[in-house]
Amino acid sequence: MFKPLIEDTFDQPEQVKDTTSPATDVDILKLIQKFSGFETPVKVVLQAIAIANYDCASAFRYADNYLNILKNKKQHQKVSSARV
């Protein structure tokens, strides 16, 4: 029988490294400030805070993604109205 070249090191749960970290109060304030310049639904802000409770980096990616979508929609509307 062949011996595997790479042994699976993630068989035991205690060996799995947790790379996520919850947000601090300061991080949550920064996250809310990101939304302050835009008309953002409360549901979106609360969702970002809920994500931040488990993974701070993911919450900021969520916020950036949402805000980029808003910016792109506004730019698209400006271009469309300029053509008419």
Core attributes:
single chain, 84 residues, mainly alpha, 3 helices, 0% strand
Task: Give a written overview of the molecule.
It is a single chain. With 84 residues, this protein is mainly α. It has one domain (21-83). Helix content is 60%, strand content 0%. It contains three helices and no strands. The chain has helices at residues 25-35, 42-52, 56-83. The protein is elongated and about 50 Å long.
In a few lines, what is going on in this structure?
This protein is an all-alpha fold. The protein has helices at 25-35, 42-52, 56-83.
Biggest sheet descriptor: none
Question: Low-confidence spans: pLDDT under 50, at least 5 residues?
Answer: none
**Spatial gap, N to C terminus:** 73 Å
Q: Helix segment count?
A: 3
Task: Give the overall form.
Answer: elongated
- Rg of Cα set: 21 Å
Protein structure class: mainly alpha
